[in-house]
Design goal:
The structure holds two protein chains of two kinds.
Chain A (H helix, E strand, L loop, with lengths): L1 H5 L17 H16 L7 H37 L1
Helix pairs in contact in A: 2-3
Chain B lengths: L29 H9 L3 H5 L3 H22 L10 H7 L4 H14 L1 E6 L5 E6 L5 E4 L11 E4 L12 E2 L6 H26 L6 H5 L6
Antiparallel strand pairs in B: 1-2, 3-4, 3-5
The chains are: A mainly alpha, B alpha+beta.
Chain lengths: 84, 211
């Protein structure tokens, strides 16, 4: 609690070690917003492409994470057993 | 004369109406490029595309200030994170200003052991428990200097505000990444403003949009 009171925004870091992975959501949204703002022709139709790209990025990251999990937790032990 | 039916003459397909979003001739816009480097999105505003400029600014500045909020001012550091700073710099004067504040307002000197084991003065961010001493205390301290307080093995306390905290681990990585993404996306926006072929938004949507 005392640490929270002493926190100075933009000066001290946030203790986000327990939930840092949730930052994927705003990062994916803000990257999509900037990228689509540059890419699309009709700026009035910006929201839909931004939402679609945000969802694509999040799903891609989840897929990569799942693939890494399968590789490290399932496939690698099997390969190690085969190599023995 | 033959009775064969006349072959219908092919009628040319109607040309598709030229989209109002079709790109115009390629032109070079140096003022817009410089504007985009000065402030994210400003280049597109100068090109008469304010909605696009605002969207770019929201994205780039959201990432940049989000990274600063997450990792603190020490995220932007041209001395200790030089390679990262080369990317952060594309955000423009904001990144250089944040670096200046970090170097001049929060970092200070400390006598630290070098890799060779010698004690050398090092300009660095503060560690937990250190304060930034900006005036001579105890008669012998050069200043500004980072000092652990209370001193180990003594009851002497030093007066000063704490320096900027240093983010570590995943928080530091994500904060650096957010500011780097802001820099890279602003570079994309600056290049788009430099070689922009789009029409002004007032021409596309009517004069009211620019106001």
């Amino acid at each position: 609690m005392l640490q929270m009171l002493a926190w100075r925004p933009f000066v001290d870091p946030i203790d986000a070690h327990a939930w840092w992975f949730l930052l994927l959501l705003p990062i994916a949204f803000l990257v999509s917003l900037s990228w689509k703002a540059v890419r699309i022709d009709d700026i009035k139709r910006l929201p839909r492409p931004v939402i679609v790209m945000t969802v694509q990025v999040i799903l891609a990251m989840l897929g990569l994470g799942f693939a890494a999990f399968i590789g490290l937790v399932v496939v690698l032990p099997i390969l190690m057993d085969v190599a023995r | 004369m033959s009775d064969a039916p006349e072959r219908p003459t092919p009628t040319p397909a109607p040309e598709p109406a030229r989209s109002r979003f079709a790109p115009g001739p390629e032109r070079f816009h140096p003022v817009a490029g410089v504007g985009g480097l000065l402030l994210p999105g400003l280049g597109h505003v100068l090109l008469g595309q304010p909605r696009r400029g605002v969207a770019i600014a929201l994205g780039v500045l959201g990432l940049f200030f989000g990274g600063l909020l997450l990792g603190g001012i020490d995220t932007i550091d041209s001395r200790e994170d030089r390679l990262w700073f080369y990317v952060h710099a594309f955000v423009g004067p904001l990144a250089f200003g944040a670096d200046w504040v970090n170097q001049n307002q929060f970092k200070a000197w400390s006598m630290d052991a070098s890799p060779m084991g010698r004690l050398e003065p090092t300009l660095r961010s503060s560690y937990p428990g250190e304060v930034l001493v900006t005036s001579a205390q105890g008669g012998s301290l050069p200043y500004p200097q980072l000092v652990q307080t209370p001193q180990w093995g003594s009851s002497g306390h030093f007066q000063g505000r704490p320096g900027a905290g240093k983010a570590v681990g995943k928080v530091n990585e994500v904060a650096l990444l957010m500011c780097a993404l802001a820099g890279m996306l602003n570079l994309v926006a600056v290049l788009d403003a430099l070689f922009n072929r789009r029409r002004r938004e007032s021409e596309l949507y009517g004069a009211g949009v620019a106001s």
